[in-house]
């Protein structure tokens, strides 16, 4: 077995022993797909994005707490999208008569792609289930390991074998943000026990390893961690003294972190709902926010990071963006990254027919992969929409990153392959508690890189088409 082959197997073994895995069946798992050729970025560009990401966090926090703006923004979507109709009803129930006692903890991932002509452009905000930060750090650590352990093979796989890998402390920084929030809530009580963290998860979750890495770090930092589905929480949450959220058998909860709740099926409990689908478990989420607990993501944050709000923010001038607690300088900075998005209306079909459809993407309000329409499917879909459905869709100008100059090596399910046209999406994590940054770097909390072939429209790691990656500085 030659050196490159040994190094590839070494990389696979490293991922398996460091929990860079996805659950495959109830009793087995497989390593996540990964690139062994880090993406490169100029130091100036990375620093500019790292400094801009916390401004987006500040912006989204202000949008989320501007309840009148959110109601007006989401109401048109709610008329044509049943899930958003329920989210809006939840939002109203939480905020009527000052019922919202929770402290908003915004742990957000802001995703960018680097357009060949326009530079970095915002793809989307991820405010609920903004995961994969731990995998981002682990992938950086894998590349650092290979650079030291197998320098010859690593040099063969990279156009700049001596490139400086960009440090990624996403596990540590996200955990620090959660600990800060937990201690802030705990300090409001007279309790002497350890702070407690509750992760709300999906049933049959396959991404347990990424979640485990964060939980493990929290436990090492003195936080108790618990996992429950909405269904499990339905009958196990109560109200304690001073509006404390109590979990049966555990006690007062300080932080609730939602890794579920961004799709209808997360609330489905047909054995519990007698009148209407999802009411029971949605009421559980409302109940959580009516207590003194730090919550990510609040319903407000989920609405504020929607495609609808992103489209509205994109259409604003820098001056108009200052209404959301930004200075003009900050607003101008984010405006340059917001890209081009357009609301869908009765004129959209004629507009797209005069354009090159390959320059646009049609997006609905769904989270995760599978919610985008491309090419000739766009005008066909636009023709099928009724006027009430227009508001649930948006047109976004496609971002065209330059493929890498040299082939990249990727490994999927134990098999290595080269990809000639790999492109990358960079997600930057930020943490804000009640609108204030809580990490040592102004709110910045690490990064996630996912790469894919330029001909691939869906780049999620879960879908099997994207791969985990990391960053290195371009050579001078």
UniProtKB/TrEMBL annotation:
<dbReference type="InterPro" id="IPR014049">
    <property type="entry name" value="Glutathione_synthase_N_euk"/>
</dbReference>
<dbReference type="InterPro" id="IPR014042">
    <property type="entry name" value="Glutathione_synthase_a-hlx"/>
</dbReference>
<feature type="domain" description="Glutathione synthase substrate-binding">
    <location>
        <begin position="197"/>
        <end position="304"/>
    </location>
</feature>
<dbReference type="GO" id="GO:0043295">
    <property type="term" value="F:glutathione binding"/>
</dbReference>
<dbReference type="InterPro" id="IPR016185">
    <property type="entry name" value="PreATP-grasp_dom_sf"/>
</dbReference>
<keyword id="KW-0479">Metal-binding</keyword>
<dbReference type="Pfam" id="PF03199">
    <property type="entry name" value="GSH_synthase"/>
</dbReference>
<dbReference type="InterPro" id="IPR037013">
    <property type="entry name" value="GSH-S_sub-bd_sf"/>
</dbReference>
<dbReference type="GO" id="GO:0005524">
    <property type="term" value="F:ATP binding"/>
</dbReference>
<comment type="pathway">
    <text>Sulfur metabolism; glutathione biosynthesis; glutathione from L-cysteine and L-glutamate: step 2/2.</text>
</comment>
<keyword id="KW-0317">Glutathione biosynthesis</keyword>
<keyword id="KW-0436">Ligase</keyword>
<keyword id="KW-0067">ATP-binding</keyword>
<protein>
    <recommendedName>
        <fullName>glutathione synthase</fullName>
        <ecNumber>6.3.2.3</ecNumber>
    </recommendedName>
</protein>
<dbReference type="InterPro" id="IPR014709">
    <property type="entry name" value="Glutathione_synthase_C_euk"/>
</dbReference>
<comment type="similarity">
    <text>Belongs to the eukaryotic GSH synthase family.</text>
</comment>
<dbReference type="Pfam" id="PF03917">
    <property type="entry name" value="GSH_synth_ATP"/>
</dbReference>
<dbReference type="InterPro" id="IPR005615">
    <property type="entry name" value="Glutathione_synthase"/>
</dbReference>
<keyword id="KW-0547">Nucleotide-binding</keyword>
<dbReference type="GO" id="GO:0005829">
    <property type="term" value="C:cytosol"/>
</dbReference>
<dbReference type="InterPro" id="IPR004887">
    <property type="entry name" value="GSH_synth_subst-bd"/>
</dbReference>
<keyword id="KW-0460">Magnesium</keyword>
<dbReference type="GO" id="GO:0046872">
    <property type="term" value="F:metal ion binding"/>
</dbReference>
<dbReference type="GO" id="GO:0004363">
    <property type="term" value="F:glutathione synthase activity"/>
</dbReference>
